[in-house]
């Protein structure tokens, strides 16, 4: 088998392969036998079709199947022979395909980039530190109570945090505009879910009152035809509702899956959850800075085949997330929606793998166990979770991958410019929840 490789552009390669005619003809004969086996043809007994007749009837199809198989087989043999780091599947093009002649074909494909990592000392990381304070805990308890509040109608004036049930209609230059009206709409004052001034304009209103609000749409409003426009809203307040917060008792504790006899015991469990959330957010914040630093320091080409694969994964995830997996073909979603995210994911994966290979990193057992323990602690029976991972190698391998990522981050931090920055629980959690 003769092999030559040409670099066309970037990561794209074209491999030219020559295969002896005898090897090809042997495959054609094998495919021909498969095609005629058991077939019934007038004038011949099943399986007794003369070779000349068989070749005349099925020779073209047999050669097509044989050539495709031969190209696949020869290509992957050549990949091993030439030690090619293949990224994605190739496309084949026969250039010489004639009976009695050596087969020659071209395979076009991409390879993984050769990565020479830049020094980690060029990366700067602000490593945040924070703790869960008593004030954070009290605020969380208040939030949990508000999330489980019962709304009761009130004759009092609406204030920040209250809910109003309203009918409204919006007008621009005296003409009602599309999407500017609703009936029986429940609005929590202070939620900032309406344009600036709308909620503030209803503060102090009572049930049965009518209000006229003269407002302006923001210049960056999501609807182009309303950007910066002044509008008048006629609002009828049907009801004002005040939040009735639940008592901090055993029934309330159980609604969060916590068996606690008193408030102090409940606080202990909530604080544990907050500390776990904070630790995870601090790790992720540091990791994101490390990843951003690696990307900035290392300029590498990304195989388009890997990007396409990642786009397909993101498409499927999007459809599944919105519950449309049974009704919608993910391929109908435009690739452009996911391209930037896919490219970044592939780039991160390539850089992470380069660091793992360069430092011969293996998943540290203590890190794997710590990550499993972190999950186990959130369940009523932690041992059941430990046993699950112990008996499911595939699930455990996902945890091992996360442990490896942590080890990569530690390797970078050891050489990077790291500064410690004091922060708060609220700041860290807010930052961690912002889109990357």
TrEMBL record:
The keyword Manganese does not apply. Its EC number is 5.2.1.8. InterPro entries: PPIase_dom_sf, PPIase_FKBP_dom, Trig_fac, Trigger_fac_C, Trigger_fac_C_sf, Trigger_fac_ribosome-bd_bac, Trigger_fac_ribosome-bd_sf, Trigger_fact/SurA_dom_sf. One of its GO terms (cellular component) is cytoplasm. The keyword Isomerase applies. Its main location: cytoplasm. It is found in: Cytoplasm. One of its GO terms (biological process) is 'de novo' cotranslational protein folding. It catalyses: [protein]-peptidylproline (omega=180) = [protein]-peptidylproline (omega=0). Residues 161-249 form the PPIase FKBP-type domain. SUPFAM superfamilies: FKBP-like (SSF54534), Triger factor/SurA peptide-binding domain-like (SSF109998), Trigger factor ribosome-binding domain (SSF102735). PROSITE patterns: FKBP_PPIASE. Involved in protein export. Acts as a chaperone by maintaining the newly synthesized protein in an open conformation. Functions as a peptidyl-prolyl cis-trans isomerase. Consists of 3 domains; the N-terminus binds the ribosome, the middle domain has PPIase activity, while the C-terminus has intrinsic chaperone activity on its own. This is Trigger factor. It comes from Venatoribacter cucullus.
């Amino acid at each position: 088998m003769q092999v030559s490789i040409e670099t066309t552009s970037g990561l794209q390669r074209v491999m030219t392969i020559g295969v002896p005619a005898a090897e090809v003809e042997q495959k054609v004969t094998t495919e021909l036998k498969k095609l005629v086996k058991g077939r019934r043809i007038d004038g011949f007994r099943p399986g007794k079709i003369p070779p000349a007749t068989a070749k005349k009837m099925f020779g073209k199809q047999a050669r097509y199947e044989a050539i495709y198989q031969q190209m696949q087989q020869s290509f992957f043999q050549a990949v091993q022979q030439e030690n090619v780091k293949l990224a994605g599947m190739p496309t084949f093009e026969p250039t010489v395909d004639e009976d009695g002649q050596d087969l020659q074909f071209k395979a076009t494909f991409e390879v993984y980039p050769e990565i020479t990592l830049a020094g980690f000392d060029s990366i700067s990381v602000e490593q945040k530190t924070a703790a869960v304070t008593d004030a954070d805990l009290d605020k969380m308890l208040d939030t949990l109570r508000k999330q489980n509040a019962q709304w009761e109608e009130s004759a009092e004036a609406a204030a920040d945090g209250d809910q109003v049930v309203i009918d409204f209609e919006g007008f621009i230059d005296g003409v009602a505009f599309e999407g500017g009206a609703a009936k029986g709409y429940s609005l929590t004052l202070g939620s900032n879910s309406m344009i600036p001034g709308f909620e503030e304009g209803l503060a102090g209103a009572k049930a049965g009152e009518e209000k006229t609000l003269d407002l302006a749409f923001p210049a960056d409003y999501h609807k182009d035809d309303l950007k910066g426009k002044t509008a008048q809203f006629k609002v009828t307040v049907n009801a004002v509702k005040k939040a009735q917060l639940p008592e901090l008792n055993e029934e309330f504790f159980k609604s969060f899956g916590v068996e606690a006899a008193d408030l102090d015991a409940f606080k202990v469990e909530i604080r544990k959850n907050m500390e776990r959330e904070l630790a995870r957010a601090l790790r992720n914040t540091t990791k994101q800075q490390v990843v951003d630093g690696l990307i900035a320091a290392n300029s590498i080409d990304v195989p388009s085949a890997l990007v396409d694969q990642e786009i397909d994964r993101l498409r499927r995830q999007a459809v599944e997330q919105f519950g449309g997996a049974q009704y919608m073909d993910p391929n109908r979603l435009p690739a452009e929606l996911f391209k930037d995210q896919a490219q970044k994911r592939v780039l991160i994966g390539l850089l992470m793998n380069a660091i793992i290979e360069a430092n011969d990193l293996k998943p540290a057992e203590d890190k794997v166990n710590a990550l499993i323990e972190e999950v186990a602690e959130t369940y009523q029976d932690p041992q059941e979770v430990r046993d699950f991972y112990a008996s499911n190698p595939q699930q455990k391998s996902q945890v091992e991958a996360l442990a490896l990522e942590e080890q990569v981050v530690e390797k970078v931090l050891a050489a990077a410019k790291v500064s410690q920055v004091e922060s708060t629980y609220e700041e860290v959690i807010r930052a961690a929840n912002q889109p990357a």
